[in-house]
């Protein structure tokens, strides 16, 4: 399959609906249970993680499965919400309560989340586009400034 075909399918309205309403509930469970080897779509085709944070209002643990980019011992995640008009709820939770738990393939850690400043985002954005080609489509769907978070492991 060509990269262009995969990009079209993965960003189509039908696939966006499936990801938002089905995969988003299953993937954190499958990813955790398989130690990062599987998602609802099979073997991940890009680096992925499951991020668990506390709800800003409820205080309940909330898990979300995201594409990521490893960056100098930390991980970058993008609050694109597949180009929706509003920031995803998980990003609002991180803004309020930045303590997180992260599951990546073969590893779990406690960490802290920090939104990147515009200049920091600008410096990593070309790498984000290469690692997550869907991001260009998501950007075109929204007028909001898409946030990027750095998840940094806590010192043991």
Description:
Strands 2-1-5-6-7-4-3 form a seven-stranded antiparallel sheet, sandwiched between helices. The chain has a single domain, classed as Pnp Oxidase, Chain A (Roll). It has helices spanning 3-10, 13-33, 89-96, 118-131, 134-140; strands at residues 48-54, 61-67, 69-71, 74-79, 99-104, 107-115, 147-153. It is α+β, with helices and mostly antiparallel strands and 156 residues long. A hairpin with a 6-residue loop joins strand 1 and strand 2 (61-67). The longest helix has 21 residues, at 13-33.
List the helices and strands and how they pair.
Elements: H1 3-10, H2 13-33, E1 48-54, E2 61-67, E3 69-71, E4 74-79, H3 89-96, E5 99-104, E6 107-115, H4 118-131, H5 134-140, E7 147-153
Antiparallel strand pairs: 1-2, 1-5, 3-4, 4-7, 5-6, 6-7
Main attributes of the structure:
156 residues, alpha+beta, Pnp Oxidase, Chain A, seven-stranded antiparallel beta sheet, 5 helices, 37% helix, 29% strand, globular
Q: Quick one: overall form?
A: globular
Broad structural category: alpha+beta
Question: What is the succession of H and E elements?
Answer: HHEEEEHEEHHE
CA-atom Rg in angstroms: 15 Å
Most strands sheet: 7 strands, antiparallel
Strand content: 25-35%
Low-confidence spans: none
CATH homologous superfamily?
A: Electron Transport, Fmn-binding Protein, Chain A
CATH class division:
Mainly Beta
**Strands, total number:** 7
Q: So how many helices?
A: 5
Strand order in the largest sheet: 2-1-5-6-7-4-3
The amount of helix comes to 25-40%
Q: Any idea what the CATH architecture is? A: Roll
Gap between N and C termini, in Å?
A: 43 Å
Please indicate the count of domains.
1
Q: What is the residue-averaged pLDDT?
A: 83
Using the coordinates shown, work out and report the CATH topology.
Pnp Oxidase, Chain A
